[in-house]
Amino acid sequence: MPIIGHQLLRVFRSKLVSLLLLLTGIESVLLIAPVGAAMGTCGNGVVDKFEQCDDGNLNNGDGCSSLCQKEGENFQVMVYAANDPPPTPALGDLPLLTQITQHGITWTLATPQRVGRFVNGDYYVVGQAAISDIQPLPTTTNGRHGSMLNIKPNIQLSGFDSRITNSRYDPTLRVYPPIPLAPGNKLVSSRSAGTANPPCVMRPYDTSESPVASVSILTSVDAPQPLDAFRPPYAQGSTQIYWSRNLNRQLLPKLSPVQNVPPLSEFEGYLRRAWVDSVFFSFDVPAEYMASYGRENAYLMSFAGLLLTLSFSPEQKEPLLVYLTQYGIDLYGLAAQGHTGWHAHGGHGSGRKFPVLLAGLMLNEDRIKSVQADFGEDMQTIGVTETLPAGTYTKSWHINPVTVVYGGHMGINGESVNPGWGPYEHLAPSAWKSTLGEDYRRCCTSVSWVGEALAARLIPGMQQAWNHPQFFSYVDRWMNTPDDPRDLQTIQNATGTSYDSDFQQGQSWKILSGGGYYEPHRTFVDEMWGAYRNHSPVPPSAPRNLRVR
Ligand SMILES: [Ca+2]
Ligand SMILES: [Ca+2]
Fold this sequence. Notes:
Blueprint (H helix, E strand, L loop, with lengths): L1 H23 L71 E7 L2 E13 L5 E4 L2 E7 L11 E3 L29 E3 L4 E7 L6 E2 L2 E5 L4 E10 L42 H8 L22 H14 L6 H23 L4 E2 L10 H10 L3 H4 L4 E2 H4 L1 E5 L16 E5 L29 H23 L3 H5 L2 H12 L4 H11 L28 H9 L17
Parallel strand pairs: 3-10, 11-12
Antiparallel strand pairs: 1-2, 2-3, 2-4, 4-6, 5-7, 7-10, 8-9, 13-14
The structure holds calcium ion (CA) (2 copies).
The site of one calcium ion has 5 residues, from loops.
């Protein structure tokens, strides 16, 4: 009975509000929008299903919105289920706003607009709108705080900030108020760093190359969205909207934690804001929260991906799951619109395939699962069919009949770019044209892949969807086959380069253990590997056929 009573009260209040607005002539749209039909219990003072808060009123701007969602940065990611789907707000239920502020960026609307939020908290406006002001204001003189209307895939240029290096800044990509928005438009607005660029995420004593601090995205849609709608990708032309009710959360394992488990909140913090990832080399990434290098990107995916395999409750996992899925949707949106991907180039191309496949699996979307794009992990892990030619260098990790080699600095086709930038591990070190590949194999790729490969093994279906078994074989080889000292000595004798224990096989974290890298919980991935990979049967790692020269 109380529920019915509340609903009646809610309907009464809504009609009263409608009537008052109608009488005062403020809001004619309410004539066609059944107020409160979908959100019947908001305003009854009780936090009901689908509500983040309920302050007993339908006012906006007091911390709890007319949709009973927490306002501003307090917005809460909720678990929505397909068998009990969330409502789609009526147009008149959405807050009518003239200003939207997110992550330090404020958009002012020329006229009041109906404003909703996607499941991750990002904002949308319904229908045509005009942005009359942005703060901080995009500057015309020195090129700070740039906004772009939609991101054109694969042009490798950015309009965010004139200090973006390597000729990747293009002022013609910038837009300035007044900016008209029509459904399908995504206004990607940035806030520039001050005189000093922010420190790197997961590499705190280095400064990011990107002068961009943070990015917020305002999307225009043609109608109010259900409460569980993901933001459509920021890539120009992408309009697909997925729903979090369809997330296959039951696929995620519920493993017992290991000793050093990072807090979910840390990785939610990195991933909550939009990861804009179109320009290769990360020259324009929002550096306050996004990794500035593929290695750190893959490390971050490793930590976050493995966190999702642990025995947190669905409610605890949901924010991180939603943020990671949104990143995967955004990356897929770029690839689907012609972005060629994140190719092998040292460690720069790592860390993108995992979030795309996670999104595909979680949303059971075949198009995403079969994404076509370059990924560093796949270009840098190459299967080798033995038997090796006579006289070929043989390392202790060779296991007949099939093994894998590192693909080199630019992967399988690297030799065509620069001598020594392709596969080299099948050659004796004395025949290596460069140690560049080996340097980056040890410093900047293998170590960061361990966690994402393990997470992909642990999430049912992901290893299959990855569709590149060489990656998994390679990571097994890296982790389960310690460097043979004789190999290291041979490399040193031939090239003059020695690799100390921070750069050796069998671990994922020693590079993190000093020199300004990520310190807390650095052994998490290795502990997870020990608990959940070493227990599985692995190929024999016993040295055989050692040293032919
Ligand atoms: Ca309520
Ligand atoms: Ca309120």
